[in-house]
Amino acid sequence: MQRRAWLLLAAAALGLGACTTGLPIDTSLRASGQDSRVRFIVLHYTSENRSDSLRLLTQDRVSAHYLITEEPVRIFSLVDESRRAWHAGLSQWFEYPNLNAMSIGIEIVNAGPLDVARTRWAPYTSSQIRVLAALLRDIQSRHHVSAWNIVAHSDIAPLRKSDPGPAFPWRELALQGLGRWYDEAAVAQRIPLISARALADASYIQGLLARIGYPIVQSGVWDSQTRRVVRAFQMHYRPAEYSGRLDRQTVAIAEDLARQMPALQQ
Ligand SMILES: [Zn+2]
């Protein structure tokens, strides 16, 4: 009898499992102190068609766990959830940097901006969003991902990225519990109460945005990074106008989300 076969037989007799290295490892007990490595779900558009998206995501140095195609909608699983996909790049959400290690990345086939000025964006189809919602619900239930940790690539890398863009229906998904949203009635009441001082003070919005997860330097001045983070925030929560210019509605939404944070945080 070969030595390896003998070892496997001996391991079986002892109640030991054998992993692919051939080492006899006992897997009959499980530790109660463990959880999923997945804390975030990051959404992207591919800005390519189906075949180019599949080629890039399988043959290049970028990847994602899932790709949702255009019509007829199909979900491809390209990287096992237990492994790291290379989709987030340099990124941060709350205090967590480099989200590849702790996230699941979902790419959606969508052309992104339709003109150079980035004023028109390709729509997502209702079947894409229906399929995405089912996938998000499935991932969320298995990994217990919080609503405020379902994020845009542009949320976690606002200086580099715009995806999934202002055409993405964040509100529709959030109202199904798939993402974070603000109290719309409370924000409508709050808008006229936002002071001119709050609008003028860069450190105020910088503090609010950091509190609700955005990576932003607390410079205290109106610099280009602040404008770009405000733009990313607007694309997510107020997609009708995302110039990056601060206004009362933007501040009111950020204040409402910040107000939710103590209750939401674990
Ligand atoms: Zn992306």
Automatic annotation (TrEMBL):
Coiled-coil regions listed: none
Family annotation (SUPFAM superfamilies): N-acetylmuramoyl-L-alanine amidase-like (SSF55846), PGBD-like (SSF47090)
Signal peptide: none
Keyword Hydrolase: yes
Domain N-acetylmuramoyl-L-alanine amidase: 26-165
Catalytic reaction(s) noted: Hydrolyzes the link between N-acetylmuramoyl residues and L-amino acid residues in certain cell-wall glycopeptides
GO molecular function terms attached to this record: N-acetylmuramoyl-L-alanine amidase activity
Keyword Cell wall biogenesis/degradation (UniProt): yes
InterPro entries, alphabetized: Amidase/PGRP_sf (IPR036505), Amidase_domain (IPR002502), NAMLAA_amidase_2 (IPR051206), Peptidoglycan-bd-like (IPR002477), PGBD-like_sf (IPR036365), PGBDSf (IPR036366)
Enzyme class: hydrolase
Pfam families: Amidase_2, PG_binding_1
UniProt-listed Enzyme Commission number(s): 3.5.1.28
Gene Ontology biological-process annotations: cell wall organization; peptidoglycan catabolic process; peptidoglycan turnover
Keywords, alphabetical: Cell wall biogenesis/degradation, Hydrolase
Domain of life: Bacteria
PANTHER family: N-ACETYLMURAMOYL-L-ALANINE AMIDASE AMID
Similarity annotation: Belongs to the N-acetylmuramoyl-L-alanine amidase 2 family.
Protein name per the record: N-acetylmuramoyl-L-alanine amidase
Organism: Advenella kashmirensis
